[in-house]
Amino acid sequence: MTHHHPDGLMLMEYSAGNLSEPYALCIRLHLDKCAHCRSRVDTLDSLGAVMMEQQAQVTVSESVFDRIMSRIDDDTPLPAKPASRPRGALSKLLGDDLNGLPWKRQLGDVSVLDITDRFPGQQEQVVLQKLCAGGKAPVHTHRGIETTVVLQGAFADNKGVFNQWDFVILGPEDEHKPVALEGDDCITLSVLSAPLKLTGTFTRLLNPFIR
Amino acid sequence: MTTLDPQNSRAEGRKDPWSQLLVKVGKNQDRQAYHALFEHFAPQIKYYAMANGMSSHAEELVQEVFVSIWRRSCLYDWRKAAASTWIFTIARNQRIDMLRKMQRTSAEMPVETEDLWQIPGENEDEPVTSLHRLMSERRVRESLKHLPEEQITVIAKVYMEHKSHQMVANELDIPLGTVKSRVRLALNKLKVILQDQNV
């Protein structure tokens, strides 16, 4: 059960199709496990339908319909149902073993994997971060906006506990010191609008839960 | 023309006429029903493309959306979404797809548009009937009647012109905070906003 959700404005940008792929991925991963937000998106999709219908109408020539029909006539018969449930976005991107990815160990309990190159043409930096079960990340704030969804395990900070599929956005005013809960290593997917800045003495080196 | 019998409609549930037509396309490849959907939705989709600067591709988008409607209609389930909502999500996804194809440089994206933006009712493990889904479009329509024009303007720019809240603020020359509060007020009416904690 997730407790931390995207806000309505971001869901609207998602429903409108305005988010870039990395942000849409964060939202989608959350939606897959959050019936509550799915129903919010249903309402927003309906809003989109009503907006589309209320706009000034234009005419479409019948020849467009004829072209569509000729494409359809070339179609093979309709498939009854999709053969199987397609693989989710996450396993398409990363395979099925998050722990087995080529993690780059950073200082202490933190590992990181930059997957920005999986999103060609996108502006944002996209990073996987892993905090060992029970591990601590150094105190840090964020220079830009960091949008995160928890993929595995859980972490806690001064704002609360973030479980699998929870969604959180941190900005420059949020100084925090995340700690992974015992059990699984905590793995998160983060989309970074700008590099992070460190506040602790250690600064420089670090990483993700820093960056 | 396919007849829309209100009696029949009541008997079959809370389906609206467009949803009934779409079911006919899915079940029987009914071309009359398909043409009626075309007459109603094709102009909306064309305008949708024109509103966000894709005028030269507007009829191409209409084609792509309708071919997709035909191919997917067998997956359409009226209990999961009204036809207009379902068609909106297909139009949105086809537009994203078209833009991705135009912008694609060299590397192929491993993720499909539909891995990121779902069509309602597909690939879901949820129980079929959800009163919420049935009600949502009617409720939205009802709520919109009571929204002030300035809120609708902002929402229309987000959905039809694909402007971010920041871009809407720049265009209307009002602070970003004002745009966001207008959207929030509207979403409150639509009950999309929730207390973010402990839901």
Question: Which helices and strands appear, and what pairs or packs with what?
Answer:
The complex is a heterodimer of chains A (211) and B (199).
Chain A: H1 8-15, H2 21-33, H3 35-54, H4 62-73, H5 89-94, E1 104-105, E2 110-114, E3 125-131, E4 140-141, E5 146-152, E6 155-157, E7 160-162, E8 167-170, E9 179-180, E10 186-192, E11 197-198
Helix pairs in contact in A: 1-3, 2-3
Chain B: H1 6-12, H2 17-28, H3 31-51, H4 58-72, H5 83-103, H6 113-116, H7 131-145, H8 149-160, H9 165-172, H10 176-189
Describe this structure in words.
Chain A: This is Anti-ECFsigma factor, ChrR. Chain A: Pfam families: Cupin_7. The complex is a heterodimer of chains A (211) and B (199). Chain A has 211 residues and is an alpha+beta fold. Chain A contains 5 helices and 11 strands. Chain A has a domain of 116 residues: Jelly Rolls (Sandwich). With 199 residues, chain B is an all-alpha fold. Chain B folds into 2 domains: 94 residues, RNA polymerase sigma factor, region 2, helix turn helix motif (Rna Polymerase Sigma Factor, Chain: A, Orthogonal Bundle), CATH 1.10.1740; 54 residues, Winged helix-like DNA-binding domain superfamily/Winged helix DNA-binding domain (Arc Repressor Mutant, subunit A), CATH 1.10.10.10. In chain B, helix 3 runs antiparallel to helix 4 and helix 8 packs across helix 10. The longest helix of chain B is centred in the N-terminal third of the chain and has 21 residues. The chains are: A alpha+beta (211), B mainly alpha (199). The interface between A and B is large, with 69 and 82 residues.
Name a few traits of the molecule.
heterodimer; A: 211 residues; Jelly Rolls; six-stranded antiparallel sheet; 5 helices; disordered C terminus; B: 199 residues; Rna Polymerase Sigma Factor, Chain: A; Arc Repressor Mutant, subunit A; 2 domains; 10 helices; disordered N terminus; RmlC-like_jellyroll (chain A)
